[in-house]
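Exercise: predict the fold of this chain.
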Amino acid sequence: MLYDPNKVGIVVKPSKRKPEEDRSEEHRPRNPLRADIIPTNGFAMVVDGKLKTTYDDEKLAQAAGAELLARFPMLRVEVYNAETRTRTKVEAAVVS
């Protein structure tokens, strides 16, 4: 059988993957935030024993923890101080 260019054959779709050179180290974030690494500075909110969000100010961390605790009172919320390596329990804000 001879090849007939007028007949439609198998169509190969282009791959949606980017070429290997586009997925280099240059496009990745330099310092990705990871929840399993204990911060060395600032404050972090700890929810049920797991690090969640980092803050530069302790008052912001306490306020965010109190707001979360007001919405979900069954959680155990603490603020971790990276300089002293201590945790402080967050008390629920009194709603009047």
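Check your answer against the key: The longest helix spans residues 58-71.
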